[in-house]
Amino acid sequence: MSASPASPPLHDALKPLSWLLGTWRGEEGKGDYPTIKDFKYKEEVKFDHVGQPNLEFSFCSSHYETGKPLHREKGFLKIQPGTSHLALVNTQNVGIVELSEGEVKGQEITLESHTIGRMTFGKDPAVTKIQRTFRLVDADTLEQVVHMETSATAPAQHHLSIQYKKV
Ligand code: HEM
């Protein structure tokens, strides 16, 4: 996923999100949840644009030791022009479609799902809520934290924390 060779200028509406652009690599993600064993993972994240008022993204995680591809996500982060209001439209390889909304404030984004679609043959427990924060820790470090709620575990609890370095 990359913008065309002659990259168009960033849409004005995206200026509040320009700090996300680029490729980021996390070498030591930490995952947990009350119903599973703690785990570590790696993840590469890309944010790109084609001149429209939305960012395209991919989140590709891999096994901490073997590098085997694991959880993957692709989608769009849209901004309501002239506002700080965001919408995340995301497909996940586990068969979930996530529609989240939230705000960008400085170099921090908070998002919460209002709609989660799943396959008719998805495994239980079903994901019922996803909450994400993205924060620019410093010029080279981006952090993502994910909490989720499932049909078996509510309210939302921590699932993922990871810091990425700019590639
Ligand atoms: C388990 C959802 C991202 C690794 C789970 C479970 C759910 C879930 C519902 C099962 C929990 C249970 O059995 O009670 C999600 C959602 C994600 C996400 C909604 C994104 C928003 C990731 C990522 C990784 C990951 C990026 C990185 C490797 C795992 C692992 C398990 C797990 C290792 C345990 C699997 C097992 O014990 O069989 N996740 N996940 N997840 N997730 Fe995630």
Count the domains.
1
In CATH, the homologous superfamily goes by the name: Calycin beta-barrel core domain
Query: How many distinct beta strands?
Result: 10
The CATH topology name reads Lipocalin
Helix content: under 10%
Report the sheet with the most strands, covering strand number, pairing sense and barrel closure.
Answer: 10 strands, antiparallel, barrel
How does the SSE layout of this entry go?
Blueprint lengths: L21 E10 L7 E10 L5 E10 L5 E11 L5 E8 L3 E10 L2 E11 L8 E12 L2 E10 L6 E10 L1
Antiparallel strand pairs: 1-2, 1-10, 2-3, 3-4, 4-5, 5-6, 6-7, 7-8, 8-9, 9-10
The structure holds protoporphyrin IX containing FE.
Please tell me about this protein's structure:
The two termini are 15 Å apart. It is built from no helices and 10 strands. It has strands spanning 22-31, 39-48, 54-63, 69-79, 85-92, 96-105, 108-118, 127-138, 141-150, 157-166. 0% of the residues lie in helices and 61% in strands. It is mostly beta strands and 167 residues long. The chain has a 10-stranded antiparallel barrel. The radius of gyration is 16 Å and the shape is globular. Strand 1 and strand 2 form a beta hairpin. It has a single domain, classed as Beta Barrel (Lipocalin), CATH 2.40.128. Bound molecules: protoporphyrin IX containing FE. Residues 31, 33, 35-36, 39, 41, 61, 70-71, 125, 127, 130, 146, 148, 150, 152, 159-160 line the site of protoporphyrin IX containing FE.
